[in-house]
Amino acid sequence: MTTITVTVNGKSYxxxxxxxxxxxxxxxxxxxxTGTHIxxxxxxxxxxxxxIDGKSAKSCTVLAVQADGASVTTIEGLAENGTLxxxxxxxxxxxxxxxxxxxxxxxxSAADLLAQNPNPSEEEIRHGLEGxxxxxxxxxxxxxxxxxxxEKMRAEQPA
Amino acid sequence: MTTETMFGRAIKRREDPRLITxxxxxxxxxxxxxxxxxxxxxxxxAHARIVSIDTAAAEAHPGVMxxxxxxxxxxxxxxxxxxxxxxxQKTPGYTMIASDRVRYVGQIVAAVVASDLGTARDAAEKxxxxxxxxxxxxxxxxxxxxxxxxxxxxxxxxxxxxxxxxGGDIDAAFGEADVVVKQRLVxxxxxxxxxxxxxxxxxxxRVTGEMTLWDTNQxxxxxxxxxxxxxxxxxxxxxxxxxxxGGGFGSKIFLYxxxxxxxxxxxxxxxxxxxxxxxxxxxxxxxxxxDHITYAEMAFKKDGKLLGLKVKTYANMGAYLSxxxxxxxxxxxxxxxxxVYDLPALSCEVHGVLTNTVPVDAYRGAGRPEASYLLERxxxxxxxELGIDPAEIRRRNFIKGEFPHRVITGMNYDSGDYxxxxxxxxxxxxxxxxxxxQAEARARGKYIGIGLGCYIExxxxxxxxxxxxxxxxxxxxxxxxxxxxxxxxxxTIYTGxxxxxxxxxxxxxxxxxxxxxxxxxxxxxxxxxxxQVQFGMGTYGSRSLxxxxxxIVKSAEKLIEKGKKIxxxxxxxxxxxxxxxxxxxxxKGSPDRSKSIGEVALAAYVPHNYPDDLEPGFEAQTxxxxxxxxxxxGTYMAVVEVDPETGKVTPLAFYCMDDCGNxxxxxxxxxxxxxxxxxxxxxxxxxxxxxDENGQLVTGTMMDYAVPKASQVPPVTxxxxxxxxxxxxxxxxxxxxxxxxxxxxxxxxxxxDALSPMGIRHIDxxxxxxxxxxxxxxx
Lengths: 159, 779
What we know:
The structure holds two protein chains of two kinds. By secondary structure, chain A is an alpha+beta fold. Chain A folds into two domains: 2-77, Ubiquitin-like (UB roll) (Roll); 86-156, [2Fe-2S]-binding domain (DNA polymerase, domain 1, Orthogonal Bundle). Chain A is 34% helix and 16% strand. Chain A contains five helices and five strands, in the order E-E-H-E-E-E-H-H-H-H. Chain A has helices spanning 23-30, 86-93, 103-116, 122-128, 140-156, and strands at residues 2-8, 11-17, 49-52, 55-58, 71-73. In chain A, strands 2-1-5-3-4 form a five-stranded mixed beta sheet, with helices on both faces. The radius of gyration of chain A is 15 Å and the shape is globular. Chain B folds into three domains: 16-22 and 478-624, Aldehyde Oxidoreductase, domain 4; 31-134 and 196-246 and 252-285, Aldehyde oxidase/xanthine dehydrogenase, a/b hammerhead (Aldehyde Oxidoreductase, domain 3), CATH 3.90.1170.50; 289-462 and 628-778, Aldehyde oxidase/xanthine dehydrogenase, molybdopterin binding domain (Aldehyde Oxidoreductase, domain 4), CATH 3.30.365.10. Chain B has 19 helices and 28 strands. Chain B has a seven-stranded mixed beta sheet, sandwiched between helices. Chain B has a five-stranded mixed beta sheet with strand order 7-15-14-13-8. In chain B, strands 18-26-27-28 form a four-stranded mixed beta sheet, with helices on both faces. In chain B, helix 14 links the parallel strand 20 (491-495) and strand 21 (523-526). Chain B starts with 15 loop residues before the first helix and ends with a helix. At the A-B interface, helix 2, helix 3, helix 4 and helix 5 of A face helix 1 and helix 17 of B.
């Protein structure tokens, strides 16, 4: 067992974990943050994407011990003071989700995409979300949701 | 109180707030005190005799609670729920845990229960299974040849059944033909790939004797019924909950070995047990789809008039018959072979063949995509051969005139306007414009292709008289609802349909808000819990709205009938004089004398001033069994570009014109089309579950099996051209599977159109760069 301290959604947690514990299992099993999902075992699907120190990462490819000292944001921590993040709002407005299983990872990846490129073209959105698989939506409404959020975020924070 | 009509409005989904904030509750999120994890040891061989299983080291592994094999578990069968009448169907025996022989890679031979998954997996590595391997067969056509290895010794030629459907004079049809187009078509094996893998949690309550199963499932009552029948656990002591379910696409309909094993193990150990499969495990254990090899011939007159169709199909069923498997390549395939066309003669023969592969069952579309692909490819081959435009040859063969229209397969199409639909599709797409662009691109050496595909499907899968008897489903397929109108004006609706992404909480609330005249927000939809819902057949076959929705409308009608009697009493009027409109009961001719439905409900529960001959309470239930299927149809148009150097196909544009009947919620209907189209494009261009000759699944992870990414799917333009169905009061037909059924042939035809200058007439799916490049090189 190894003791780690990780800040998750602004709250610090100190836990003993097996060295082989993946970050996604740490979040789900140790912290009961089940919004982060597991959809594959080869880092293809992206259902487990979270932010580590502000950058998106597949939490199934990171050991919990590697996140020691880091700040992690999960889907549960994305809305601030009960106000939905523009991406959450966009996914709701544009019907960007059906079963909702890929959605947390998709939203977290899109958030990183918009942080790097506040005004992505449709092609850039599709390319930027290549690491996230959705089987329900055909991506069309996910693209619309990301555009919705991009517009809203640009309007809120003029460059 | 009045409410605006909700039908037809693009209402945002009520289920989304929890799902976009990480508060969904999927089976793998269920955590119970004392819960143990089970890991299943699966056969690494496609066909082998089990000589021995040594579990001693695993049992001694720290943290292991118990190891199970066939020796300490009952031989509970994994059933096939379908025996098609009069074809001598042979259903091989299949038990939840293998005892002496395994027949596909992934079949379960042992189970390890431990405190956590890591420990269970570690211990599983210490189990030593000695196998004696046997010859393997994976190809359905080869499996029927004399001398092929036998998957089950007692089933000759590995043929579980041969199913025939004939109509008209096929010999005369082919005798008078000017042109016959022939093609061998492979409709390749697919893996459904719901992004949530399967999971089961079982809890046995030793005090009450009740077993609760949380199951990633589309039809929890069917699962409860089957488990109850198989294990003797009474239904009153068995509760199956399918909470938030992360996509199904058919693959979560079935009763698999794992649900039975978790039930048995939880009962044995009397602690909560969780099983959650990995993706690799999913590929080796969750039912696959499609996998047909077909020889097809279509006869035409010179003017393009269709005369007849001959089809011989080898349908790969896998190693055992899954829950509904025999229905898929027969009654959901052969009966759709008339398509939207006037087909005078048909000869269809389907061989259901057992092989050393994962069982095959319904996957989105289920039989109908195979039929649609076959028809539309042959229609295009004929168009080329006869020198007729692909749109024109279809136009010359559409069913026209009166509906309902019975086709040669026996299906009775409810309503449709196929030529009108094509016209709208061509207009939306700008067919002439695209043909001009194509000619211009060709002149510049670019290989642009335009593809067209028309489809029809039988949806609202239900009529018990057909499914239960003619088809051999053995069960009726109706749907139920209960509307419980609470005394405070809130409404709970219990539906037997199940949403795993479809948005029933939203759409069913829209229906009920209109029917009852209460605000949308006051309605709650409960589904997916046998402990709450009366009974239900679940969701598949695009049936939820046509069958489940109709049931809700009928329950609302019953409630209003009762409400009229209560209102009449309260208003001191004759019940025959009471009208119901927008949530109010009023006396005809005196609208000021009225009671709201909420007031009536309160009176029904507090019946101190109440009619003598009426029961208290305000609740209504309907088990609705429709008289016919619904028949959605449509036309899909695709544009692709093929790179002749690499064989890479890039889909550029995709246009849909769907007749799904009246559209209840355009936002949701459009989303269903988008998703279906992406899966159909996946089949056309990317996806293929490949077995090698030893029965190893080569595409065993998401690294090897190409689920389409955002960048691989083109923008999709939808269009709706409703021809209301007469089969239900809303005039709806269904939209869940249309996209998958219509898109594969449109893309395939577009690719062949692009390659036509090279003289290439057909390439089997998927049209990967490698397959296309090989075909180009072969020319």
